[in-house]
Every structure is written in structure tokens, then in C-alpha cells.
Amino acid sequence: MKKLFFTAAILTASVAGVNADTKMPIPTVEEAQANGWEALWGDYQYGYVMPENYVLVDNEEVTINLNRAANVATTCQVKDYSINLQMGSSLGRESNAAQYTLDGLYATMKQPYAILTLTPKMNGKISYTYCRGKNSNATMYVWDTSAQDGVGAYISANSAFFDEGEDGMYDPIAHTVTVNVRAGHAYWIFCSDEGANADFYGLTFVPYSSDNYVTKATGATEMKIPTVEEAQANGWEALWGDYQYGYVMPENHVLVDNDDINLQLNRAANVATTCQVKDYSINLQMGSSLGRESNAPQYTLDGLYATMKQPYAILTLTPKKNGKISYTYCRGKNSNATMYVWDTSAQDGVGAYISANSAFFDEGEDGMYDPIAHTVTVNVRAGHAYWIFCSDEGANADFYGLAFTPYSDANYGTTGIENIVTSTVATPADGKIYTVDGRYVGKEKANLGKGLYIMNGKKFVVK
User: Fold this and answer.
1) How confident is the model over 57-112, as pLDDT tens digits?
2) Cα–Cα distance between 406 and 78 in angstroms, integer?
3) Average per-residue pLDDT in the chain?
């Protein structure tokens, strides 16, 4: 697992090249002082207050801005970080209640906590890192304001719950979530912990066109789809009458049952050899005729299966430890599919979406779409039961695998951006000057106003 850090040098490289990933920087205390921003709680040793309408990133890939003034603190809960953007509201945790206005979100806040607005200019995915500290009962939300013709929908509602250590204390861990985002849509990123706050350490955007995009789900426990040979040995039905196409996995088949998780298929489902992307030879088919990008509640498995035209898969996951899952899927050349993870145990059994991941392809130079395997990461809680299913209004997606990693695992990850393998990008020594929010302002220092700038990967101040 690679670890990335949010540096000015990488930011400069991301501005210079479209295919380089964009890392969101949080200004340092020294930068805040240089800009004359208000000290947090009256002293810069605690941090500062970032002003409203501040643009964190605006380049060829993405715009990220802070809508109103918000605290930036030096009281970080986990190692490897020195500063964080504080987020929080008094909204109910694990709720999918619609949030239609920014004013509605801000009205729930007891302090100036942050809400970010992200507008991708390319299709891709974001990874964001946060921590609640010793009390980890926080939920980070990503709300697509453009989904469902402007009605909006959650695409991520990530709740992290700690395991108690041997000393009876909770060990703060930085959690990283990945989810896909669509060009031209506007997303709100915010936190709920019923009045408290979480520390937000950073965000990375990776476009589909980046060499770093393609990933595969890996973890301590990895789901294995039986091979065609195993299906034949078990006497399972051939798919469409011939094993060359795959087979039909029987109902109530247990895919994994160990000390970490139980993962099972509830009803019979197709397993196909017609894989859409390289590096895979077999897939579990998923699909339904539910409306894509919808947050309409699905209370029963019967309700889900009633929407299916073929025997497509719904998985039930029951973690035995707190941790995270990564799952990998692809719709093929038409990528307009949404993969859902529904927590049946949330809100005292009412249920709530924790992931609704929609992937949309960019058109290539030849006018065709290039199938890519998409991997999403989200946290899951011990003892809860989760349904994992797909919607593409009648079509199906290929599900290639799932992996679970408990918090206690050394490979869980405490820093950096999950599932992104970074290539070496040289910082250009071209004399171009950028503001700390990524805006190009020319090459002449004499033309600059007061403030902090970046040139050739190094910061300098104009007084």
C-alpha cells in the first residue's frame, strides 16, 4: 500500500499536467499569518480561521472551494499530520435525510466547521482522509447535488467506529474513503457527529485518464469467485447451457466465513467469463432495474430481486470486526452503473446507504469508451448486515471481487490516499508561478501582489 503526502511540489505538478493527480492542500499556519487570517481561539498555536469563499484548488481537473469561514486546527488526532480542516454538524449520524441547501447544513453547526464544494471537470474518483479521534463515531458524507435531475443523492456516507484496544482505550486512525465523481456535477463534502467535529486531512482527485486510476480490491480477507472448473466439479448449472459462458452459482452460497467476515450470496446468480476488462477471467453479474443514482430505500431482499430480469447477484456482508471493504466492478463500454452498499442495521434497523458509487466513462480519441475496473473503499461496522447490489435500469455490471481489512490490521492504512499507486512526476523547473490554491499567475515576481506563491515546487512570500 503506497502512501502519499500533500506537498506543494505535487500540487504544482498537478496544475502543469492534466494526467497528474490533484492533491488538495490545506494552507499552513505560516501561510495564514502571511495572509492576515484570524488566529483560532485568539492564538496561532491552535490554528486559524480560513475565510469564506476560499478556493483550495482550481485547475484543469477540478475545483474545490470552501463556502464559508471554517476552523483549521493544529490539534491533530493522529500521527503524520500537523494540520486539519475541522468538519462537523448536529445532523443525525447514519441518516440519508436529504440536504438540499448549504444554508440547511450550516444551520446545524455550533462552530464554523467546513463544508467543501467539489466540481470535477473530468470523470474520475476522489479519496479523502479524516479522523474523529478517540471517539470515532463520525460519518463523512459526499452529496451529489446534481443527481436525479438536481434532486440530489448521497454517493458516500462513511461511518467509522473504533475497536477498543487492550488497554481499554481507542486508537485514533486516519480513515481514507474512495468514491467516483462525475464531470460537471457539484458535490458537497461534510461531516456529521451530532454536534462534535472530525479532522479532515486532505483529498485527492484522480481522473480516469491517469495512469494511477486503475486499482484492484486488496485486503486481509479477499473474496474468491469459484472458477468454471470448480463449478463443473460441484455440478452447478452451465450458464446459457454451456460452461464456456460461465455457470449459475446456487442460492445461499457462502463465499467467505472466517474470523473477520461472513459474505454470502442470497439467491442463485450468473457467473460469467465475458469479462469487460483485462486482468480478470471471471465475474459475478449484478444488476437491477432500479433507478440509477437514487436514494430510495430498499427494505427487503425480495424488493430488490423483484426488479431483476435475470438471476443477478446480491451479496450480504456481515463483518465480525470493525474495518473497511474495497470492491471492484465494471459496467464495460457503457459505464453508467451504480453500485450500492446498504446498511440494513443503521438507524435502528431502518437502514441507510453508505455507498452509491456511479461510474461514467470519458470518451477516448477514437470515439469509444475504454472499460476500466473501478474500486471503491468504505468503512463497515462489526455486527451490521450490508447488502451489496447494482443498478443500471435493467442492465448488469461485472463484479470482480471484494476485500475486507480490519482496523487492527497493520495494513489498514493510517496516512495517504487509499489504492492509488503514484508515478514519479518531476516538478517542472519552468519558472511558472502559482498561488497556493493552484492558480497560474505568470512568471514575473515583480507583477505579484502580497501573498504566498509557489515556483518550481518551492514556496516564497511577496511582502
Assistant:
1) 999 999 999 988 999 999 988 888 999 999 988 777 777 777 778 888 888 887 88
2) 18
3) 83
Q: In Å, what is the CA distance from 271 to each residue of 79, 148, 223, 463?
A: 44, 31, 14, 65
State the Cα–Cα distance between residues 215 and 212, nearest whole angstrom.
Answer: 8
Q: Is the dihedral of CA 64, 69, 71, 72 positive or negative?
A: positive
CA atoms within 13 A on the CB side of 184: 5
CA distances 397 to 79, 95, 267, 306, 372, Å, are 39, 27, 17, 17, 12
pTM exceeds cut of 0.90:
no
Of 79, 29, 34, 20, the closest CA to residue 49 belongs to: 29
Find the largest Cα–Cα distance for the chain. Answer: 78
82-86 CB contacts, 8 Å cutoff, 24+ apart: 83/26, 83/28, 83/29, 83/47, 84/26, 84/199, 84/200, 84/201, 85/26, 85/50, 85/114, 85/199, 85/200, 85/201, 86/111, 86/113, 86/114, 86/197, 86/198, 86/199, 86/200
CA distance 138 to 135: 8
Query: Rounded distance, CA 223 to CA 218, Å?
Result: 9
365: left (phi over 0), alpha (psi -120 to 50) or beta: alpha
pLDDT per position as a tens digit, 173-188: 889 999 999 999 999 9
Distances (CA, A) of 285 to 265, 274, 343, 396, 430: 12, 10, 21, 6, 49
- CA 408 from centre of chain: 21
